[in-house]
Amino acid sequence: MSVSSSTKSVRKNTSRRKGLSINAQMIPTLAAVVIFIVMLIMGQALFGNYFKLGFVSNLFNDHAYLIILAVAMTFPILTGGIDLSVGAIVAITAIVGMKMLAVGLNPWLVMLTMILIGAAFGLLAGVLIEEFNMQPFIATLATQFLARGIASIISTDSLTMPKDNGFSWIGGRGLIIIDNPKISNDLNFNAGVLIALAVVIFGYFMLHKTRTGRTIYAIGGSRSSAELMGLPAKRTQYIIYLTSAVLASIASIVYTANIGSAKNTVGVGWELDAIASVVIGGTIITGGFGYVLGSVLGALVRSTLEPLTTDFGVPAEAVTIVVGLMILVFVVLQRAVSALNKQE
Amino acid sequence: MTATEPIVVMKGITIEFPGVKALDGVDLRLFPGEVHALMGENGAGKSTMIKALTGVYKINAGSITVAGKPVTFSGTADAQQAGVATVYQEVNLCTNLSIGENVMLGHEIRGPFGIDWRKTHKEAQKHLSSMGLSDLDPRAPLSSISIAMQQLVAIARAMVIDAKVLILDEPTSSLDANEVQELFAIMRKVRDSGVAILFVSHFLDQIYEITDRLTILRNGQFIKEVMTKETPRAELIGMMIGKSAEELSQIGAKKSRRVSKEGEKPIVQVKGLGHKGKIQPTDEQIYAGEVVGFAGLLGSGRTELGRLLFGADKPETGEYELNGKKIAINDPHTALKNRIAYSTENRRDEGIIGDLTVRQNILIALQATRGMFRPIAKKEADAIVDKYMKELNVRPADPDKLIKNLSGGNQQKVLLARWLATNPELLILDEPTRGIDIGAKAEIQQAVLDLAQQGMGVVFISSELEEVVRLSDNITVLKDHKKIADIVNDETVSQETIVDTIARSGKEA
């Protein structure tokens, strides 16, 4: 074998495989698209209301918070980390927000305070992870308990918004695109959905169009490599956990505005819903690969699972089992597809 | 050669770790347009010196000047800012990203709407082209190219920051001969553009081929700076190890070739052992007291065959006979139970467990064979650890040190100790001497011969034909995932014999 022939074969190989391999990374996300569409078609075919404007509107209006949480969770998971505190941050910010509204404070001030509280927890997680060298799992588990505990200390009652609060408009009818004369069959997106859209655009821009975003992917590939390449890994970690916590507070604003009340137990298990969304959306849990848009799709799949299982007559008590099974099947399917692709 | 002012001057560099003086007043000068090699055994302080220059370690005493300006680095980013770029032995790129992204990470070209990917990839292409890598697609994933090419991509990345100094820390240890030449071509290109290159390699041939100037370290101390051309090899080795070169090169030279007895059964005999895409069905036998060398180029299937013999990969075809009895070796645990051990070529990822101590690393395989309900008595464990650390001369001689803090050569010795502790009949060693210094190499080679002498069967896999020929009784030659020849290693066999065998088989095919 001569010099040139050996290197040539390597290079030819790369150019031949180029298109294929890039697709390989996207396959799990594409699979999420297909599954989502299949779910909608199936729902429509069997139960006849999945293409109704009202259904689509509600899907988005009621789950805007989950879309935001899924985007938030994408950041740490891309680095191979995790943020278990998002659900608890929703709880504490919601409780504090409700208390402030109850005494008639300016709604903008309320929102700002909620975001600052979230940021404080994000910063704390960042300090624990970077300065005390904790695993993100442990650090955010700690902040989760802390946030949930403080929320419970403040109040264990179900708090409702006062009338004329200047806050619940976010969850109102919002942007009405099609005003259907039939009852509850409008195509309308509330401000929460628009906020979620902004969050998605922010997430996409951040991850794909900024150096910080590229550093996030690099850390997911190899933290030590990223550091040796001179990338600001430490600063980026802070940004990641700050971002996910702040987005969690925004999710809290959107959710409470939509529901109109809050309790210290709100958001229990939401971090797991967010993780499920991210994983369904094709982001690899060990980091390095994944897309924000995938997470959005994951959130939509996750949100559609519940009405679908209910429509199939699964008793309410067993819905979580079905959801869990579907996630399992889904992830195995993804694995199989990408493994098959790798072999080729 | 330019005899101008040095671009980097490191003077009196001292670095202390708790309890150890890693460097003691070491000097180093790098000149623009020169390739400078840092020479010394493992543990001599080469890596520490490099890490001082790249800002990974803080220096306790001494000074660093770059381009006439005194500098203090408090991190790798600082060093890169000053124009010091580094390519490490283990490629430090992100395999999850594309080639172009890796080249440009942290230096992406930004437009009004964030990163402009079109321009960024174009710039990446430009840098790759200037390294002679114009036919690499910057959008292809890094994982789609070989380690060797990744190494070259890492150099292209280093040049993005407009480096004045390029440090190459053992870049050749995982490359085959052709790839080394490709690397050297790029190094010459970079050198001729006026960059100072600091090169570390354990291959003396390469040092003499590419370098202009040498700085020799021993035990953390500065020995001498010399011009490569004016320094004979023997003298260089003498300076590095403080012993004469002759003592070392004699290992195995006087080895009495093993004579097989009539009617003797091999320890391991396999027929048609294979795995699709890894190695075609292969026959192989290994007798007690025999060293069988696996020779072949990178990717020839030599590692794959070794892994199949150990069950690290499950064979798809073939029969496996152990001491005349049929057996299925489908996983490492079964192999260990049957006294077959395999030391991986991938020391860092599959070999050592960095955060465990030397002692734990030695005992782990033995404990695994016994199962967790039969712990090794402390006395017995101490005896085993002590015995092998002494026999193999592991330095530092402290079993409670974390193994990740040992030099490569000593890590390799610990791995050898780990497998010897399981008392194997067949020991498969995959690249046991890669990337380690002459002294440790000689010790490991000697250990291999001693083990065979004591009746162990050894499979010795190495990309260095010279040591395969020197140590083996029989040589299995592999090419393109196929065994192409069995060579009985007598006086007529040399490195050329093997090279010829590989080359000839190509023509027939």
Automatic annotation (TrEMBL), chain A:
Per the record, the major location class is membrane
- What are this entry's molecular-function GO terms? transmembrane transporter activity
Its domain of life reads Bacteria
Q: Tell me the Pfam families matching this sequence.
A: BPD_transp_2 (PF02653)
Q: How does it sit in the membrane?
A: Multi-pass membrane protein
Q: Which UniProt keywords apply?
A: Cell membrane, Membrane, Transmembrane, Transmembrane helix
* TM regions (residue ranges): 20-43, 63-96, 108-129, 189-207, 238-255, 275-300, 312-333
Return the GO cellular component terms, semicolon-separated: plasma membrane
The signal peptide here is none
Indicate whether Transferase appears among the record's keywords. Answer: no
Compartments reported by the entry: Cell membrane
Give the InterPro entries listed for this entry.
ABC_transp_permease
**Keyword Aminoacyl-tRNA synthetase in annotation:** no
Query: What name goes with this protein?
Result: Sugar ABC transporter permease
Q: Which organism is it from?
A: Galliscardovia ingluviei
UniProtKB/TrEMBL annotation, chain B:
Q: Which residues form the ABC transporter domain?
A: 8-244, 254-505
Q: Could you state one GO cellular component term attached to this entry?
A: plasma membrane
Q: Which GO terms describe its molecular function?
A: ATP binding; ATP hydrolysis activity
Q: How does it sit in the membrane?
A: Peripheral membrane protein
Sorted alphabetically, which PROSITE patterns does this protein's record hold? Answer: ABC_TRANSPORTER_1, ABC_TRANSPORTER_2
Keywords of this entry: ATP-binding, Cell membrane, Membrane, Nucleotide-binding, Repeat, Translocase, Transport
InterPro entries assigned to the protein according to its UniProt record, in alphabetical order: AAA+_ATPase, ABC_carbohydrate_import_ATPase, ABC_transporter-like_ATP-bd, ABC_transporter-like_CS, P-loop_NTPase
CDD domains found in the cross-reference section? ABC_Carb_Monos_I, ABC_Carb_Monos_II
- Which SMART domains does the UniProt record give? AAA
Compartment(s) of residence: Cell membrane
SUPFAM superfamilies membership = P-loop containing nucleoside triphosphate hydrolases (SSF52540)
Please identify the protein, giving its name as recorded. ABC transporter ATP-binding protein
